[in-house]
Fold this protein.
Amino acid sequence: MRSLVLLAGLTALVLPAQAAAQLPTQVTTPPPPAHRSDPSLTTHVFRVGPFSIGGYQTLRRTDVVTPPPVAGSIVGMDVRIVDASGVEVPQAQLMLHHDVFTNGGADDSRADGACPLRAVRERFYGTSEELRPLTLPRGYGYPTTPADRWKMIWMAMNHSAERREAYVEYRVTVDPSPGLIPVKPYWLSVVPCVSDPQYTVPGGGATGSVHKRSLTFAMPEAGRIVAIGGHLHGGSYSLVTSQPACGNRTLAVSDPVYGGADDPLYAVRPLLHEPDPKRISWNQWSDGWAIAKGDRLKVTATYDATRPHMRVMGIAHVYLAPDQSVQPGCSAPPAGGETLGPDFSGRDDPPGVLLTLARWRGFGVATPIERPPGRFVG
C-alpha cells in the first residue's frame, strides 16, 4: 500500500556537481533582441540536458557547463527552459526557479567578488523567475575565454502531476573586439556570503505596512558602476542600492513587476509556491557611477509586511568597470542612464496569494486539503 505524502512545498531532488549533457555541436544565431547587442555579433547557444522531473518535484543541480568557444567580452546573456524542439516551456508547467553562472577562470581559482572567502567561484550572471537577461551599455563587457571554467547552479520546479522532460538553454552574445572596457560583478545580498541567502518576513503588520532589511558593503576597488540588476521574491516592493556617505542617494531602484491576474501561473492548483515577480527592472549607464575604493554601498529590500513571506531574498547584481583613478567623494550622477522594464503589462504591487496544503499518493493528481489529519500539538 502506498503511503500518503503531504505537500506543503515541492519535493526536492538535489544532485552533486557534474558534467552536464550538452548539444554535441556548436549552435550560433544572431543576437536575440533582449540582448540589446550589435546585430552583427554572434550569439552562442548551449542546451543542457535533457532532464526528467517528476510530478510535484524540484530538481536542483550544479553542472559543469561550456563557455563560448571564442575569446572576447560577454555583452548579453540569458537562460530559459525549453523542450526538445527549442520552444520555451511556460512557467505554469515547468519553472526555472533560479539559475546562477559562476566562472573560476582558466585555473578554476577565481574568487567571487562580493564573497571572496567562500568556495563558490565568481558569480557573473544569474536570474530567477524574472528571467532578466544580462545586458551592458555599449563599450563594456564581461571578459571570457574558451579556457574558463564555468558552472551552472540551478533549480527547476514542476508544479503539475505530469512528469516533464526539458532542457536548460543559455545564450551568450560575445563581442570579440579587444577594446571593450571590462566589468567585474559584485553580488550584494542583504543576507551576505552564505549558500542560501534567504530570510522570512513574519507578516501580521497593519494594512500597507512594509518590512525592510538592509546591509552595507565596502567596495574593495575603485571604478564606475555601469549596471545594476536585482533579485527579489514574491511579496517584494523594491530593492534599492544607495550610497550612504552621499546623503544616502539612490543609485538604482530594482522594481518588481508581477504577472497579471489572468496569468496561468496564478491558476496552478495546488499552489505550493508564492510566485516571484515576472520581471525586475534593470539599470545601466554609459558613463557609470564613480565609486572609490572603500566607498560603502547600501542595499535595502522592501517587502509587504501584512502577510508572511517565507524564504525571500534581496540581492543587487552590481557590475563595476574598475578604474583606479576614481577618487573619494560624491561625484556627479552619470548622465547617460536607462532603466529597462518589462515587455508586458503586469502588476506593480505584490498580489495576495493563498498557498495550499495538498495530499498526494505518490501518483496522480494532488488533492488540496484544509489541514492534515490528526490534532495540532504545541
